[in-house]
From TrEMBL:
Lineage: superkingdom: Bacteria
Alphabetic keyword roster: FAD, Flavoprotein, Oxidoreductase
Protein's recorded name: Acyl-CoA dehydrogenase
Any Pfam family hit: Acyl-CoA_dh_1
Domain Acyl-CoA dehydrogenase/oxidase C-terminal residues, every copy: 70-203
Keyword Flavoprotein: yes
UniProt GO molecular function: acyl-CoA dehydrogenase activity
InterPro entries from the UniProt entry: AcylCo_DH-like_C, AcylCo_DH/oxidase_C
Length: 204
């Protein structure tokens, strides 16, 4: 399934092979057809313009948007953890000046900071999921907090992982390059951190 929720989510992801494509806006949802394709910074994500092709039906599009934000935050946590795991493994194997690079404090501290950021963001994602499930009045606040924390943690993981791996992390042959692009795409999906920080401020 793939859905577009304008204006925050104007394109549907991979709508060309989704078994169901939806257009949700203004409290209504309708079946939709995929139109013009747009490239994403993440080669695994194709973005499509969609046009309604069926009768619009009433729907809680605001709640659907919150689910999308939460799912994006969860993916960011997963991508960040994957990069951290790869970097720890690489730091234990790569040698420089006769020592594995993981023995240097600069590397240890950098990866420890990533671990802390991910562990601080993870409970916010769990909490946002509970708020959504309970239909809490604070759902928008909690979901935005989760997206901001997850996006920041994943960005830190991306930067630290690339610095740990060095130039090989940029290459298409290395899995890290795929995760770097995925994080860049997910940070802006369903609203970038700036939008969600604004929502947090409005909820205070």
């Amino acid at each position: 399934r793939s859905v577009a929720l304008p204006p925050q989510v104007p394109y549907a992801v991979n709508a060309d092979f989704a078994d169901l494509v939806l257009l949700a806006e203004d409290g209504q949802v309708s079946d939709a057809d995929a139109g013009t394709a747009h490239d994403s910074v993440d080669p695994a994500r194709k973005l499509f313009e969609v046009t309604a092709s069926g009768t619009a039906r009433p729907a809680d599009t605001a709640r659907a948007y919150e689910f999308g934000v939460l799912a994006t935050a969860a993916q960011l946590i997963g991508a960040g953890q994957a990069m951290l795991d790869q970097s720890v493994g690489y730091a234990k194997q790569r040698t420089q000046f006769g020592r594995v690079i993981g023995s240097y404090q600069a590397i240890k501290h950098k990866l420890a900071d990533v671990h802390i950021a991910l562990e601080l963001a993870r409970p916010l994602v769990y909490g946002a999921a509970l708020s959504l499930a309970d239909r809490s009045a604070d759902t928008a606040r909690d979901v935005s907090a989760a997206k901001v924390a997850a996006a920041d943690a994943a960005l830190l993981a991306a930067r630290s992982s690339l610095q740990t791996h060095g130039a090989i992390g940029f290459t298409q042959e290395h899995d890290l390059s795929l995760l770097l692009l995925k994080v860049q795409a997910l940070r802006s999906a369903f609203g970038d951190p700036t939008l969600h920080r604004r929502r947090l401020l409005e909820a205070l």
